[in-house]
Amino acid sequence: MKLEHQLVGIPLFEGLPLAQLKALAGICRLCTYRKGQLIFAEGDEGVGFYIVQSGRVRIFKLSPEGGKEQIIHFFGPGDSFGEVAVFTSQGFPAYAKAEISSHLLFFPRAEFVALIREDPSLALNMLALLSLRLHRFTRLIEDLSLKEVPARLAAHLIYLSERDGNSAEIKLDTSKAQLAASLGTIPATLSRIMTRMGRQRLIRTEGNCITILDRIGLQETASAERKLL
Predict the structure, then answer these.
(1) pLDDT tier for residue 152 given thresholds of 50, 70 and 90
(2) Are residues 165 and 217 in the same domain?
(3) Domain identity same for 151 and 122
(4) How many percent of the chain have pLDDT more than 70?
(5) Contacts of 26 (CB under 8 A, 6+ apart)
(6) pLDDT higher than 90, residue 186
(7) Element at 135 (helix H, strand E)
(8) Which of 40, 140, 168, 221 has the most other CB atoms within 10 Å of its CB?
(9) With pLDDT > 90 as the criterion, what percentage of the chain qualifies?
């Protein structure tokens, strides 16, 4: 399949005509990263942005003291990341690492900006996607700074359920250690909270599969209207 036809299903390029997709295909490069390989580090020059063709990428920050990792997000097929490089001359604001063996499409900043100057509709799609992502990260910051861990976990489970079409069945695509890191806690604390949620019939956990048994109760926990016993 030609690359321009692969770009059709990518949210960032949704609705673009074939001529623009061909122009985008003409400037992108295919990059392959092995599991655990660093894609870029915080502060590296923002020379372009990436789209995940296959695999999964972890975006994270490291604390100045001791390098404690705070996971920001995981990106999978069709997701783009590093777009801040397109609009600024600043470095990347976080680290990116291949969670598994991954194939990425890389779009160099200079060539992409030249295409935007020719057709601003490219920028409109990108701004819409970045606005949604900003809203998501604002909620993440609020959860990490204002909510207790049970509320953070409940909110995250609801988010995963909504992402999958409000499905009651959630399959975690990360380890529980990584989930704990993304929620700003440790695995032992996360396990205790999951056990308490199970006892109160909010969720049922089987390996990496979580079933929501009481969505209303979970929402009340997420909003801190309900406390775990």
Answers:
(1) confident
(2) yes
(3) no
(4) 90
(5) none
(6) no
(7) helix 121-146
(8) 221
(9) 34
| Cα of 30 vs its chain's centroid, Å | 21
- How many Cβ atoms from other residues are within 10 Å of residue 137's Cβ? 12
Q: Can you read off the two tokens belonging to residue 6?
A: 């692969």
Region of residue 64 (left: phi > 0; alpha: psi -120 to 50; beta: else): alpha
pLDDT of residue 124 exceeding 80, the answer is no
* β-strand pairing of 203-206 with 95-98: unpaired
What is the spatial distance between Cα 45 and Cα 55, in angstroms, rounded to a whole number? 24
Residue 140 resides in a domain: no
Q: Give me the count of residues in the chain.
A: 229
- What is the residue type of 16? L
- Distance CA(83)–CA(92), nearest Å, equals 9
List pLDDT tens digits, range 48-93.
999 999 999 999 988 777 667 888 888 999 888 998 777 777 789 8
91 DSSP 8-state letter: B
**For the domain that residue 171 is a member of, what is the CATH number?**
1.10.10.10
- Which of residues 129, 159, 179 is at a domain's end? 129
201 vs 33: CA distance, rounded Å? 41
Does residue 134 belong to any structural domain of this protein?
no
Q: Which two tokens stand for residue 66?
A: 């001791």
